[in-house]
Write a structure and sequence with these properties.
β1 and β2 form a beta hairpin. It is built from 5 helices and 4 strands. By secondary structure, it is mainly alpha-helical.
């Protein structure tokens, strides 16, 4: 037996509403689980955290019935990773990572220079330094 209650909206305005009695009870735990997944997405993007840490931080505050209504952990992790990829792609102007270099003379994007410890492009990586990997001073490899 389907529920006959209906509400038709246009934007924020209610256009029509049939208000017969509902033939079912609402499932608060499912609604709270959907809200929790949204909170995990927000927390992961705000804190720049991994999917596992954002899941753990939100799950610590949930009730047991909401935890049981959550989707499988792998499903939520995949959703969070897809959300992070979309956010990083949007922040990078539509490309998640720079194109693969075709020669040894290339410019490192400014958003990645801080990670590499470099100051100004272009950089020449034709001469590798085996005592300092990736040009990191103070790091030595003992052969």
């Amino acid at each position: 037996m389907q529920c006959k209650a209906r509400l038709i909206t246009s934007g924020n305005r209610i256009v029509s509403g049939r208000q017969p009695e509902h033939t079912h009870s609402g499932n608060v735990a499912t609604a709270m689980a959907r809200k929790a997944v949204g909170e995990k997405k927000t927390k992961m993007n705000d804190m720049n955290a991994t999917s596992s840490s954002s899941q753990a931080s939100v799950a610590a505050t949930l009730d047991n019935d909401v935890l049981m209504a959550l989707p499988k952990r792998k499903t939520v992790a995949r959703t969070l990773q897809r959300t992070r990829l979309k956010a990083t792609t949007a922040a990078a102007g539509g490309t998640p990572l720079p194109a693969v270099p075709s020669d040894l003379q290339f410019a490192i994007p400014s958003r990645l220079q801080a990670r590499c410890g470099l100051s100004a492009p272009p950089h020449n990586f034709t001469t590798p330094c085996f005592s300092e990997p990736l040009g990191c001073p103070g790091v030595e490899i003992n052969w």
